[in-house]
């Protein structure tokens, strides 16, 4: 924790210096390009730790960028651990249908055991289709259904696993959210042999004000994976 704390302080100081009046131009509301980065104390995705070499957690830097054209968003998201034991590069396309529904197709790659551009037999890429709905029944309730349909999501016998994950979210306030998610079938990705609850979490967010012009979004996430019989506590910073 101490090395991470020092790193966070250094990064925060640099960002505070850079994001002072006169050193940064405000982004226009209609700017189609977006870029950012999160720093997390450990990488946990849908209740599943993503660094097999560090089961107790490993800090990660997670950059992202996107381009928005009307209701269509094209983007990429990645993660890399401070020790180099995690490397992930994902590509996605999302389309918003009205104000409540979004459909997304994602090309994940977190293996990197083969040529990145190899999409043939035995590819490292895994492909997922998802649909997300917000403000269900005029409540601060959201739901998403995420299903892998091709690529490196394989059962032990080599068959496609079609790993499927359902998640519900409820906002208790602008800063507090509760999350519940489950794998719906046998899945090598979520480590389940059938239906299993993998993610029950409480997320609290706030902004730390450094100057009148700059604040730093931070969050804490306490979660449990009943299926995997473990718990996690993650802190994150967003730039």
Label this structure with key terms:
two-stranded antiparallel ribbon, 239 residues, twelve-stranded antiparallel beta barrel
Structural class: mainly beta
Shape: globular
Low-confidence stretches: 1-27
Let me know the average pLDDT. Answer: 89
| CATH homologous group name | monomeric porin ompg
The percent range for strand residues is over 45%
Number of domains: 1
Helix content: under 10%
Main beta-sheet strand count, sense and barrel state: 12 strands, antiparallel, barrel
Strand arrangement, major sheet: 1-4-5-6-7-8-9-10-11-12-13-14
N→C terminal distance: 20 Å
CATH topology: Porin
> Number of DSSP helices?
1
Task: Describe this structure in a few short sentences.
With about 240 residues, the protein is mainly β. It is built from one helix and 14 strands.
Description:
By secondary structure, the chain is mainly β. It has a single domain (33-238), classed as monomeric porin ompg (Porin, Beta Barrel), CATH 2.40.160.40. 7% of the residues lie in helices and 50% in strands. It has 1 helix and 14 strands. It has one helix at residues 2-18, and strands spanning 33-40, 44-45, 48-49, 60-69, 72-81, 87-97, 101-108, 126-133, 141-151, 164-171, 176-183, 196-209, 215-225, 230-238. The strands form 2 sheets. It has a 12-stranded antiparallel β-barrel. Mean pLDDT is 89; it is low at 1-27.
